[in-house]
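To illustrate the input format used throughout this study, we show a single complete record. The first block contains the structure-token representation of the backbone; no residue identities are included at this stage. The design step must infer an amino acid for every position from geometry alone.
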């Protein structure tokens, strides 16, 4: 067994993500991998080499030439298109080597709503998140089939760059991973710098992002202090601010509170509620009360023994918790297993 450390695979995954981010500025331009055109269930799709989190495309190929002013005073150039975006998966499957771990996931995650992914450990929730923003392909030997549509556009289509997808679909991990020696301010701006997004007013963006992450009041006088000096809960909100600064269309959160105390957890839940108007939030949580509190919709993942993870049921959170169709959903939300 691979030793993933005390927090499981998430820790190494977050470290890899940051390493890829940091490498982005230096890596040579990458060639887009042609689509492998998977036949469903014909087996894993060859992903060629894992695609590095490479440098941004030349200015001409990046986003629209005209920046879209979305907040008064802060204009980003070269970032994601404005606003929240819907995510939909069609028959999404994922493999690690020959091991099929996720089968035929069909989910719609609409804008303006928080979707919670629930289910026991090992049923593929994190893998599903990584499929959405093309981080799955960073895992050596990983492959996939099916479609992931971001506002109707397949993120795996030929010509779609992984880095652009990851800018549009930001991610926050279980363990807070700010750049510890970097100042709070530079942490917030680090995603922009690495993707070479230009900002008309960085100070306003720092304030706006920290406010959205409900951290501004606590750090407004400490913007020059190292990010590593903040408490765990503050570091997690700093990571949320960093993810928000590039103004993504979707924010993925993989158990963002599981390393935090109850007060910090509460703060993050309040933050998520406010973010719903800004980005489409998709959160994995093992905490059923949390899923109930923060989400509008839920998807219940389950993997039977020696079988891949599948979505057993999905729908409005109220229905999933109060009157689910499947007996297994009821058993899980009532805490009878998992
Ligand atoms: P969850 O997030 O629901 O706990 P994961 O998506 O982490 O589940 O894992 C789903 C399955 O994929 C598990 O069987 C797990 O062991 C396997 N898995 C996850 N990451 C890797 C990896 N990097 N290499 C090989 N297998 C993996
Ligand atoms: Mg997980």
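Output of the design step:
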């Amino acid at each position: 067994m691979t030793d993933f450390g005390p927090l499981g695979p998430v820790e190494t995954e977050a470290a890899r993500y940051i390493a890829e981010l940091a490498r982005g500025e230096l890596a040579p331009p990458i060639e887009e991998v042609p689509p492998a055109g998977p036949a469903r269930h014909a087996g894993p799709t060859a992903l060629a080499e894992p695609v590095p989190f490479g440098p941004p495309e030349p200015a001409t190929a990046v986003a629209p030439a005209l920046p879209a002013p979305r907040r008064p005073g802060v204009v980003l150039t070269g970032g994601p298109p404005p606003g929240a975006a819907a995510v939909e998966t069609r028959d999404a499957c994922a493999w690690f080597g020959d091991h099929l771990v996720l089968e035929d996931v069909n989910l719609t995650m609409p804008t303006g709503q928080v979707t919670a992914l629930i289910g026991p450990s090992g049923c593929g929730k994190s893998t599903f998140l990584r499929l959405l923003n093309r981080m799955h392909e960073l895992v050596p030997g990983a492959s996939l089939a099916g479609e992931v549509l971001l506002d109707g556009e397949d993120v795996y289509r030929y010509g779609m760059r992984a880095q652009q997808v990851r800018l549009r679909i930001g991610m926050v991990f279980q363990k807070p991973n700010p750049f510890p020696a970097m100042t709070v301010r530079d942490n917030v701006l680090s995603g922009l710098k690495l993707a070479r997004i230009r900002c008309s007013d960085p100070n306003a963006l720092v304030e706006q992002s920290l406010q959205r992450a409900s951290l501004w009041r606590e750090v407004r006088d400490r913007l020059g202090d190292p990010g590593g000096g903040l408490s765990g809960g503050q570091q997690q909100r700093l990571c949320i601010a960093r993810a928000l600064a590039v103004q993504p269309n979707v924010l993925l959160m993989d158990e963002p509170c599981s390393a935090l105390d109850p007060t910090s957890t509460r703060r993050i839940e309040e933050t998520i509620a406010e973010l719903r108007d800004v980005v489409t939030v998709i959160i994995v949580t093992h905490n059923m009360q949390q899923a109930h509190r923060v989400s509008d919709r839920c998807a219940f993942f389950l993997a039977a023994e020696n079988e891949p993870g599948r979505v057993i049921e999905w729908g409005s959170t109220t229905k999933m918790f109060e009157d689910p169709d499947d007996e297994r959903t009821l058993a899980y939300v009532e805490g009878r297993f998992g």
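Structural context for interpreting the output: Confidence is low (pLDDT under 50) at residues 1-8, 24-43, 48-63. The chain has eleven helices and twelve strands.
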